[in-house]
Design goal:
Number of helices: 2
Number of strands: 2
Largest sheet: 2 strands, antiparallel
Mean pLDDT: 78
Structural class: alpha+beta
Strand content: 5-15%
Helix content: 40-55%
C-alpha cells in the first residue's frame, strides 16, 4: 500500500485546512475486490484499531470530528 500524507498545523485564528490522503495501488485494490463483505469489514475494523493505537484519538480528531473529545 502506498500512502502519501500532508499535515498542516494552523494557528487558532486561521481557518483549518488539514487533509490526509491515502493512495492504494492497483494490486491492493485487486485484493479488496476478491474479499467478501465480512472480510472487508474485518480488515477495516483491524485498521481502525491500529490507527487509534498508533496516533490516538486526539490526533485523529484533527482530520475527523467524530473523534473529538475521545481519549
Amino acid at each position: 500500500m502506498q500512502r502519501s500524507g500532508r499535515f498542516k498545523k494552523v494557528s487558532e485564528d486561521r481557518e483549518e485546512n488539514v487533509s490526509i490522503v491515502y493512495t492504494f495501488t492497483k494490486e491492493k485494490l485487486e485484493e479488496f475486490k476478491d474479499m467478501s463483505v465480512s472480510q472487508r469489514l474485518q480488515w477495516l475494523e483491524e485498521t481502525n484499531l491500529f490507527i487509534n493505537k498508533t496516533i490516538g484519538f486526539k490526533k485523529r480528531a484533527i482530520t475527523d470530528p467524530r473523534f473529538e473529545g475521545l481519549e
